[in-house]
Amino acid sequence: MGTTNGANRSPHHFAADYQLGVAAYDCGRYSEAISLLSRMADRGDAAGTLSRFYLGQAHLQIGLGELRSRRFKPAIQHLQAAAAADRTRGDLGRHLAAAYAGDGRYDLASREFEGMIARGAGDSDTPIRMAHSQWRQGRPEAAIETMLGAIRRERGRAELHFQLGLFQAAADDYAAAISAFSEATRLAPGDADAHQHLGLTYAATGELGNALTHLRVARRLAPRDSYLALQFALATQAAAGEGIALEPEDDLPAGGKFDQRAIERLGQTVLGDPDFVEAFLALPQTGIDRDVFATLAATLEWALERHSEYADLHFHCSRVYERLGRRDEAIAAAARALQANPQYVQAMIHLGRLYAETDQTQDGIDRLQEAIERGGDYPDVHYLLGQLYRRRGDRPRARRSFERALELNEGYSAARSALAELSAA
Question: How many domains does the chain have?
Answer without folding.
Answer: 3
